Amino acid sequence: MLDFSVTFFITILNITILFLVLRAIFFKPLTKFINDRSRKIQDAIDTAEKNKEEAKRLLEQYEKRLADAELEAESIIRVAQEHARAEAERITAQAKDEADRTASGTRTRLEAERLAALAIFKAEAASLVVNAAGRLVKRNLDGPEQLRYAEEVLKTLGGGSP
């Protein structure tokens, strides 16, 4: 049978005191350390989740900004191309106008030179005609008489006045 002697009660008392001392020295600090560690881990997990959500939000913002920047870049390129096209058309039109003015000036100058050459030709032709006519008539025409005779010859030939 069981013998409950004094040593049994002393052993139980020793175990109870040892349990209380160990609990006070080891279990409470160990439990506190475990609870603190659990709380720190949970805080780290919560912080990581918040950072993950913030990173996701920032990523969406940056993607949106990137898309907006791409659209803006396309718009800027399109506007620049339109400006370049308009500038090219303006320069082409300006060059064409300049070429037309140059060609017109050249035509005018050529026409003036042609008329001057024609006038010189008429004057020389009239002089040759007068000389030839003078030789035919055997007399020398001079001054106003020569000019009048040259005009008559040119009118009859259809050349008009010199």
Q: How would you explain this protein's 3D organization?
A:
This protein is an all-alpha fold and 162 residues long. Helix content is 90%, strand content 0%. Helix 1 crosses helix 2. It is rod-shaped and about 190 Å long. It starts with 5 loop residues before the first helix and ends in a 5-residue tail after the last helix. The model has no long low-confidence stretch (mean pLDDT 86).
Summarize the structure.
With 162 residues, the protein is mainly alpha-helical. 90% of the residues lie in helices and 0% in strands.
Q: Notable features of this structure?
A:
single chain; 162 residues; mainly alpha
Overall radius of gyration: 61 Å
Q: In this structure, how is the largest beta sheet organized?
A: none
Low-pLDDT sequence parts: none
Helix content: over 70%
| Global outline | rod-shaped
Number of strands: 0
Q: Which H/E pattern describes the elements?
A: HH
Q: What class do helices, strands and sheet pairing give? A: mainly alpha
Strand content: under 5%
- For the record, give the distance between the C-alpha atoms at the N and C termini, rounded to a whole number: 169 Å
Topology:
Layout: H1 6-137, H2 144-157
